[in-house]
Structures are given as C-alpha cells and as structure tokens.
C-alpha cells in the first residue's frame, strides 16, 4: 500500500545487554531524611525499579505482546525535511463504514497508550466503531529522528495528515491529549477539509475576551465558579508552581538535558517516573507497566533525548505554536473530555473559546494519561460524541461507524 510495509519490534540483543550493563554501573544519589515525593522521584521507588529492571524485567515478553498488534512503517517527507520513517499501529474494524480515527500521543507517552483502547474502539458489536491509526510521532518510539532544527507543530501535523491520506482516509477525526491535542488542533487549522472532528482530553484555552467572543465572555462573567472549577484552580496552581519545571528545561535547553536522558537509563527512568505518578489520578502502576513505558523510550529509534525537542520547537515557532492552539479553531467539531487530575484544567466557560464545541464530558476520576488510566471512559466518550445523537454524528459523510453506510 503506497510504500507502507509491516513492522516487527525486535530490539537487538546487544542493546538489551548494554542496558543491563548500564544499570549495573548506575550510581544513585542520596536522599536527605524527611524527603517526600514533593522533591521528585523517591529514592526507594527508583531503587526498586532499577533492581527489577536489571534482574527480572523481561522485555522480550512485552515485545512479543506488542508484536501481536498490526505495526507498520512508511517513509514521509514534509516541509523540505529529509524522509522520515514513521511507525504506526493501524487497527481496522470489521464495520465497513467505521470512522477513521487518528490517535496522537504526547510526552512522556507513546503509541503504547492506544493499546488499551484498540479492542474497545474497533469492536464490531459496539457502535460506533472506528478504524484506529496510532503513529509514533517523529522523534518518538519506533519512528525516525529529525536531523534538522525547526521541526515544529506544523511539521508534526503535516506528517500525521500525510499518513492518513496514504492509508486511504481523505477525511478523518482525531483524538489526543498533551502534544497529541496540540497537533490535532494544528491539523484542524491546516487541513479543515480533511479533519472533520477532534476529541481532546487536555483542553488548552484562554480566558474569554469581550472583544472577540462577547457572548462567551458574558456567560462566564455572570456565572459562579463551581466546586469543580475551584478544584481545577488548585490543580492548575500546583502544576504551575510545583510541577512544570521540566517544561521550561525542555523548551529552553533540550540538548543539555539530552545527554543525561541518552546516557543514563536511571536518569531517564526518574525523569519520566515522576510524571507517571504525579500526573495520574492515583493510578496503580505495576513495575512492568512502568518499565515497558520507559523501555520504549530507551530503545526508541531516535534515542530518548530526541523526544523533548518538540517543546523547544513548538515554543519558538513564529506562528503555529503553543499559543495559537489555545485560540479559536473554526469548522472542526470539537469534543472535550475533562478529567479531574489533568494538569491544567479549565473552567467549563472557557472551553467555548477553543472552537465549535459539540460535546463536553466531565469525569469524576482520571488524569493526564486517560487512554491508559481509564480506557473504558475515554472510549465511551468517543462513542457518545460520534454516536447517534452525538454532536459529531455523521461528521464524516458516509462513515457513521454503525455498518449502515
């Protein structure tokens, strides 16, 4: 299919041996008495995980499970950048008019996040059904690494759009959180005729302004904050004041941090582990889950340092940057899933500044990695949005997901 070929994950034994050797030679820091997780990744947790990773964790077992999924690769070139080998999962439904859905991850996520959603979204007996495409973004997972600077949100969006076109989906919907949300928004800006609807679980918006959206502004101004809004403000304040330092480093000096991420599996583990714990809603991570998540970064084609460069490029782009994706995006129908432990939750009244909102759900549990923490809730929300009676029903002509197209 137009340069698309099957792909099998197969990490060379030499890389596995090299990882074990580095873990054996690792040197952990001390931890002052009275230290809590507020200081960062706890020494006890990291020590346990390092020992398990070195002595017991079985990558080959998880590799075998991952290879049961339909993996592919294809070469894509955008914006004058050299060809990039793009890895993706393409799980189709047996329903003939299933809805093409582009699932986009962020940092520190990967294609792994979609694996719990696949059986829920592609099932023929649960309408509407979806054809799911879940790429490893460039510089992530088993996609190639970008060798030139200035590969920003525009290029990520163009890459993912080209992938959908190549797979025979001229019109499609998107789902994403974190950078996946931002890339979804840029796709909607650049390709509104193709991207007919977006569902996001990390909304990014701005305070309503009377000059641009007077009705939204007045509606928000006369409403009283709910208990949920108050809790959201506390969560946002915690993130801004205590949890967002990593982002400033990524966005300003990614190369400096990259030496540690590329050279030290313990450094990589601790840098990401902290986020897996802080950004979820008391999710009970198993050690195998954590180490598979981290191993995908360690064994990634471009190397773990490459993944953080998206912060720099998106922050320094002149136009399609992080600020732009928080503004109004017309024509693309927008669905929003609000999870209470998201990093920067916004009041309900602000969400209407993002675009034509057709669906909003509020959940009592869940955090930043919704597809992994609560896949049933996220899949159900997608069905509500795209199902009969939903705001995006028949958003793509002839593709309802019900088998009646």
The largest sheet, given as strand count, sense and whether it forms a barrel, is: 9 strands, mixed
Helix content: 25-40%
pLDDT under 50 segments (min length 5)?
none
Order of helices and strands: EHHHEEEHEHEHEHHHHHHHHEEHH
Q: Kindly name the structural category.
A: alpha/beta
Report the β-strand fraction as a percent range. 5-15%
Distance between the termini: 24 Å
| Average predicted confidence as pLDDT | 95
Q: What is the 3D shape?
A: globular
Number of helices: 16
| Beta strands, count | 9
Q: Give the strand order, joined by hyphens, for the main sheet.
A: 1-2-3-5-4-6-7-8-9
**What is the alpha-carbon Rg in Å?**
21 Å
Give structural notes.
With about 400 residues, the protein is an alpha/beta fold. Helix content is about 40%, strand content about 15%. It has a 9-stranded mixed β-sheet, with helices on both faces. A hairpin with a 7-residue loop joins strand 2 and strand 3. Helix 1 crosses helix 2 and helix 10 crosses helix 11. The model has no long low-confidence stretch (mean pLDDT about 95).
């Amino acid at each position: 299919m137009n340069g698309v070929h099957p792909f099998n994950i197969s990490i060379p034994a030499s890389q596995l041996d090299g990882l074990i050797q580095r873990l054996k030679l690792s040197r952990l820091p001390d931890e002052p008495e009275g230290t809590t997780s507020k200081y960062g990744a706890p020494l006890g947790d990291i020590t346990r995980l390092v020992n398990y990773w070195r002595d017991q964790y079985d990558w080959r077992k998880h590799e075998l499970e991952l290879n049961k999924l339909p993996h592919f690769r294809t070469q894509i070139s955008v914006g004058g950048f050299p060809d990039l080998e793009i890895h993706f999962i393409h799980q189709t439904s047996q329903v003939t008019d299933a809805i093409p859905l582009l699932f986009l991850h962020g940092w520190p996520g990967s294609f792994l996040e979609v694996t719990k959603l696949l059986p829920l979204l592609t099932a023929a007996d649960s309408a509407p059904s979806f054809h799911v495409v879940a790429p490893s973004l460039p510089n992530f997972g088993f996609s190639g690494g970008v060798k030139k600077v200035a590969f920003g949100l525009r290029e990520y969006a163009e890459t993912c759009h080209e992938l959908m076109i190549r797979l025979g989906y001229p019109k499609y919907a998107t789902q994403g959180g974190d950078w996946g949300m931002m890339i979804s928004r840029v796709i909607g800006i650049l390709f509104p005729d193709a991207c007919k609807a977006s569902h996001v679980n990390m909304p990014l918006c701005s305070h309503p302004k009377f000059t641009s959206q007077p009705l939204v502004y007045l509606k928000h101004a006369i409403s009283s904050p709910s208990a949920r809004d108050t809790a959201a403000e506390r969560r946002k304040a915690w993130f801004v004041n205590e949890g967002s330092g990593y982002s400033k480093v990524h966005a300003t000096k990614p190369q400096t941090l990259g030496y540690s991420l590329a050279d030290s599996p313990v450094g990589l583990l601790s840098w990401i582990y902290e986020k897996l714990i802080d950004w979820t809603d008391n999710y009970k991570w198993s050690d195998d889950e954590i180490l598979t998540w981290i191993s995908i970064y360690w064994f990634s084609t471009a190397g773990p340092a490459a993944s953080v460069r998206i912060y720099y490029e998106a922050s320094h782009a002149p136009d399609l940057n992080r600020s732009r994706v928080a503004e109004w995006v017309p024509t693309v129908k927008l669905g929003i899933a609000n999870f209470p432990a998201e990093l920067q939750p916004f009041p309900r009244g602000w969400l209407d500044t993002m675009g034509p909102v057709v669906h909003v759900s509020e959940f009592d549990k869940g955090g930043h990695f919704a597809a992994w923490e609560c896949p049933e809730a996220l899949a159900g929300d997608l069905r509500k949005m795209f199902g009969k009676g939903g705001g995006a029903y028949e958003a793509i002509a002839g593709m309802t997901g019900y088998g009646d197209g």
